[in-house]
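Fold this sequence, please.
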Amino acid sequence: MNTHLQKIKEYLRSLKEIIKDLIIRFYKIGTGETKLTRDFIFLFASWFSLLIFFSFFILAEQNPFRLLVPFQLYSYPSLDHREPIVIYISNGEGEQIPIHRKVLKQDETGAFIYQIVGEVGSPPYFDSVEALAKDGKLFSPKKLLDIRFALKQSWFLQKDSKLVIDWNVQILQDVMEKYRLPRTKSEETGDSEDENPNAPVDTITYYSAGTETGPKESEEVVNKRKILAMESTIRALNASLFENFKDLKTIEHQFSGELSPVYHWDSLSTLVTRP
């Protein structure tokens, strides 16, 4: 035990002498009694740089040896694996335009069709590309119905020239029941005579029939507008499918389930050919 204490005292004594010698040396350098040598400047700069280097990593709580492993401190930039596809958007009044959207394109045909249905029913981006001027009028895209969950299955016939899509009618009717109709400019002002034809339609503020706020409409008018929204959605979907499947010539829509007499389903085109 005494031997270990004696060794510790000797180490402390030698460390004290080294520190004392360094203090005297720095003092003489500071007072000009001793001139700086190149070896001293090199060693001082090296140790000081090493101290600063490790201090930064200690403050950042990072391992400095990560610099020795490539791409550990800075990784490769993430690549955009999305591919542009053509999607048609509609203004709800029979006009529609094609736009390009980047998506993680699915390799399987059925999954890709489901993806297209979801993009058609997704909200418009309201950017400069999706608000193009058409025939001197501002094109104001509307929020179409999100009917992807009503898609039961789809399959190709006649060597991929005909596509059959089977829809769940009950889910389609539920989507139309929850769909909030866009409020038009004339409905906000209450005067359709002074309506500006170039004025954009308010596609952000929505209302549903029967609520305390918003204009009151008969149930028949509301149901007619909802089936028109469904028709616009189907038309935009057909155009998008024709654009993404070049060999496709005919699309047939099948509605499985009991059709509600509230909506005029006969207005929907069940068989569509490429224009």
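Strands lie at 83-90, 96-103, 133-134, 137-138, 151-157, 162-168, 181-183, 202-207, 250-256, 271-273. The radius of gyration is 37 Å.
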